[in-house]
Specification:
210 residues, mainly alpha, 2 strands, 70% helix, 6% strand, globular
């Protein structure tokens, strides 16, 4: 799908969500606890504002792209930057759609929907992470990864593999109803910690070599 086509689809979806606000109750669920039980309500117009987040996210990548020459070169040489941009935008769009669904059907199973969305995001983002060039805005940005290109590449290669494997495993377990959303969050946090430690060890190792 071309950029123009995706932009058109994105705006159509966004406008549809904005219009849906006027068919919602005046008061809608706006917050869920860690067990996906509704514990907060607010005006339906809160969703009207947040329905614009996917658009802001998508065009925000254009702004980020202008801030770093390495991202400009990356985009000009590969479609991967645009794919990552679309994946993250679709993640935000999916979250909005799930929220919209819950506004009309509060009894729906939000946990399963959110679990599937996060697993798919891990799976697809992990696949493209190793191609991201060193920069200050997109990727695994620890203080030491943005200082050494070798460390950056090793970190994103390892992180990409871990996220793909985790995304696939958690997706299968979610479909089989053997995995809770809390478990997915814990796994992601643990993986982030492992990746951070690994990248720091690589950074110290590269420093000793230099």
């Amino acid at each position: 799908m071309s950029k123009k086509s995706f932009s058109v689809v994105l705006w159509i979806m966004t406008l549809a969500m904005m219009i849906s606000v006027y068919f919602m109750n005046d008061v809608i669920p706006i917050h869920w606890n860690f067990h996906f039980e509704i514990d907060g309500y607010g005006s339906r117009y809160i969703f009207l504002a947040l329905s614009l987040l996917p658009v802001v996210m998508y065009y925000g990548f254009d702004f980020i792209n202008r801030l770093d020459e390495r991202l400009k070169k990356y985009e000009s040489k590969s479609n991967d930057y645009e794919i990552i941009r679309i994946i993250i935008t679709l993640l935000m769009l999916a979250i909005d759609i799930i929220w919209m669904y819950m506004c009309f059907y509060p009894q729906g199973n939000m946990e399963v929907a959110m679990s599937v969305v996060f697993c798919l995001s891990l799976l697809f983002l992990g696949n493209y992470m190793p191609t991201i060039p060193m920069n200050y805005y997109v990727g695994i940005r620890f203080p030491w990864t943005v200082k050494n290109e070798i460390v950056w590449k090793k970190t994103h290669k390892m992180g990409g593999y871990m996220y793909v494997v985790t995304g696939l495993m958690m997706l299968i377990l979610t479909i089989l109803n053997l995995c809770r959303f809390e478990f997915i969050v814990v796994i992601i946090l643990v993986e982030t910690l492992v990746i951070g430690i690994y990248s720091y060890v690589m950074y110290r190792k590269e420093g000793m070599i230099c």
